[in-house]
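User: Let's play a game. I give you a shape written as tokens, and you guess the letters that built it. Ready? Here's round one.
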């Protein structure tokens, strides 16, 4: 069996169509898009096309899209650029389950004197809207809340949140790195002011991202230097990656509904079978409001890392916690915020699927996983092979 890749929330395969489109921009069309000559000018036109393609996926104007180097840069720009532009206000509201690309920036700003409120979530990873409403006040510069969680796939009601926050004349940013390309967006009809996305999460290349900035939103630039991106993000453009991102967005926009249906079928089949065949398994996160491609399952009383190693032997790639925190044995901050018991948080595995997965791969994983769980349970000093549940709530 070749590699079975169920780690698409960490990164995705670049679509062949995207790769093909990028090719000429390395050795043939290598001009600088800012140059006056025709050779560079033709490259500038390709960036314009890519901006249209990204705007097509987001349902916004192309002038509202800034290219960046990644989702992290988009998040950093949105947060730092807003608090700088909205001088005088000193409060930032976010959640405890954000990606480090948001949380770390907010915590750094807190060290510099800003008041940062990190809203908690319930056991299923849901936000309390009333608590958010209470926190938004005249001192609030920014509310930044993710669209969909990278670890559990839980989707927040971002449109409702954006409407409430902006009605109080506070800027609203959402990290949509996991949502873009998986959830249909129409920003022209939304109250979102700023939205981050990343190329490598939607079958585009690594090293490119985009930030949507609603027309009229005040934002200080993060990167200073040349006049690229209309003075909003300095630095010579990563042309092949931008062209690739554009094509990836075009493909996502065209196929989003059909792919979601197919991917959801595969995810549900995998999840249902693992819950049935592996005692002590439970899903983490709100099953009714989740990305179609993600399932986060805890296998109680065994180590997630041990499961990953055994899956790896069979060529199956998954993740324990988020990609950015794997390598550390600390239970994920997202599962901790949800109050998932320690014994379950430690044994959590995220399977994240994509359009390239097949039913055969799902069946293969369903065949291998119960044996892995039973073997690790036998080795566990806590339970042994007699474990049949129940799982802690
Ligand atoms: N935000 C979320 C929700 C993510 O999942 C990630 C990456 O895992 C990022 C931000 C960072 O994106 P990038 O890897 O493009 O910097």
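Assistant: Ready! My guess for every position:
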């Amino acid at each position: 069996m070749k590699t079975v890749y169920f780690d698409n929330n960490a990164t995705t395969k670049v679509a062949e169509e995207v790769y093909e489109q990028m090719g000429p921009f390395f050795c043939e069309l290598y001009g600088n898009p800012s140059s006056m000559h025709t050779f560079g000018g033709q490259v500038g036109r390709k960036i314009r096309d890519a901006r249209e393609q990204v705007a097509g996926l987001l349902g916004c104007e192309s002038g509202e899209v800034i290219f960046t180097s990644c989702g992290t840069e988009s998040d950093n720009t949105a947060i730092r650029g807003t608090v700088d532009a909205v001088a005088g206000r000193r409060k930032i509201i976010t959640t405890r389950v954000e990606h480090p690309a948001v949380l770390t920036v907010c915590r750094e700003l807190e060290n510099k004197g800003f008041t940062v409120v990190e809203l908690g979530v319930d056991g299923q990873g849901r936000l309390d809207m009333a608590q958010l409403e209470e926190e938004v006040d005249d001192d609030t510069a920014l509310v930044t809340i993710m669209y969909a969680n990278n670890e559990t796939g839980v989707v927040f009601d971002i449109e409702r949140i954006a409407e409430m926050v902006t009605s109080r004349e506070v800027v609203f940013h959402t990290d949509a790195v996991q949502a873009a390309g998986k959830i249909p967006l129409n920003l022209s009809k939304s109250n979102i002011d700023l939205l981050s996305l990343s190329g490598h999460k939607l079958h585009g290349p690594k090293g490119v991202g985009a930030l949507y900035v609603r027309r009229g939103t005040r934002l200080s630039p993060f990167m200073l230097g040349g006049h690229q991106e209309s003075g909003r993000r300095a630095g010579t453009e990563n042309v092949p990656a931008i062209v690739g991102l554009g094509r990836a967005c075009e493909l996502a926009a065209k196929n989003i509904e059909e792919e979601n249906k197919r991917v959801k079928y595969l995810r549900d089949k995998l999840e249902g079978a693992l819950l049935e065949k592996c005692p002590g398994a439970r899903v983490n996160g709100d099953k009714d409001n989740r990305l179609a491609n993600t399932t986060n399952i805890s296998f109680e009383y065994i180590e997630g890392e041990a499961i990953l190693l055994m899956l790896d032997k069979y060529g199956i790639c998954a993740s324990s916690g988020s990609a950015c925190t794997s390598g550390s044995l600390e239970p994920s901050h997202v599962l901790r915020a949800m109050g998932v018991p320690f014994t379950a948080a430690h044994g959590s595995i995220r399977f994240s699927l994509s359009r390239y997965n097949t039913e055969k791969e799902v069946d293969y994983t369903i065949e291998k996983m119960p044996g892995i769980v039973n073997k690790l349970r036998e080795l566990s000093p806590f339970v042994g092979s007699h474990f049949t549940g129940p799982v802690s709530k």
